[in-house]
Task: structure prediction
Amino acid sequence: MKPAATAHPHNPWLAHAVRISRMAAATPGVFICDLVFQDSAVAEEYTFAPGQFNMLYLPGLGEIAISISSDPDQRDCISHTIREAGNVTRALGELPVGSALGLRGPFGSSWPTENCIGRDVVLVAGGIGLAPLRPAICHLLAHRERYGELNLIIGAREPSGLLYTTEFDAWRADGLNVHVTVDRANSDWHGAIGMVTNVLDRLWLRQPENTLMLTCGPEVMMWYAVQMAIRRGLSPESLYVSLERNMNCAIGLCGHCQFGPQFLCKDGPIFRYDRVASILKVDDL
Ligand SMILES: Cc1cc2nc3c(=O)[nH]c(=O)nc-3n(C[C@H](O)[C@H](O)[C@H](O)COP(=O)(O)OP(=O)(O)OC[C@H]3O[C@@H](n4cnc5c(N)ncnc54)[C@H](O)[C@@H]3O)c2cc1C
Result:
């Protein structure tokens, strides 16, 4: 008889048993948690698209939505980059390697990597917003020849808040122009100071009409980034934003993450900007 997990591979309610294979501090208050499936048949079947998220379940505590931050081609584990926000994330951060938890997923829409083919791409990340973009970066660089100019603009409040800094050189070597800026810094910092929009304002764009922008970070940052992109000549149809709201079922049934007429869990979290522009700036939505 096949194990239950394999018999119901697409049951969205089924939490698969996973184990923590690695825990690493990333930036203050943020850690990286690598997970492996207990059932090798589930591991074999599990694939995700860049930008999708999992629901991580800690028995007795709760279930939370966390974007997948690993390379989609990496098969040995799934990474999540997590900020300690409240009960579940804090408890998860304290678990030792080897601990068991539940995972449902992957869920949600993904970055439009197919649409990027033959075009220039600008990725704009603020703080932990780089986490859901990392799988897209890995994918774009794994198929570098398909794309035009690739630029990544990363912003953080301060240098200590920058994620994945040890990977920047490899990304650059693989053909990604990495631009880093921080809001404030001390004398040890030799990079740019200012907002990501300042970098976007000065970025050389060889063909704005054939450039896509993928952005993830605080909503106010994404709002200003899309305004700047439009000013720079990108069309609203070529801008993609990733939105987050409190989420429960992850399959569009409970209504917790309703965003105007859409559900963030199944229609998002990644949206084409022109499809959410009218509701993006509405408070409490
Ligand atoms: C699609 C999606 C992807 C996400 N990806 C990541 C990720 O990669 N890394 C990560 O660290 N977090 C991510 N989050 C946010 C994460 O789900 C919340 O931080 C987490 O649910 C908080 O749970 P908690 O029990 O620790 O905190 P709680 O005690 O539930 O909340 C603590 C505080 O965080 C606020 N909060 C809770 N959930 C959210 C949310 N979804 N958005 C904004 N504020 C929230 C609460 O209102 C409260 O103020 C994602 C959320 C969504 C919807």
Notes: Residues 4-107 form a domain with the Elongation Factor Tu (Ef-tu); domain 3 fold (CATH 2.40.30.10). The first helix runs from residue 4 to 7. The CA atoms of residues 126 and 228 lie 15 Å apart. The pocket of flavin-adenine dinucleotide is lined by residues 53, 62, 64-67, 81-83, 85-89, 108, 128, 131-132, 244-247, 269 (CB under 6 Å).
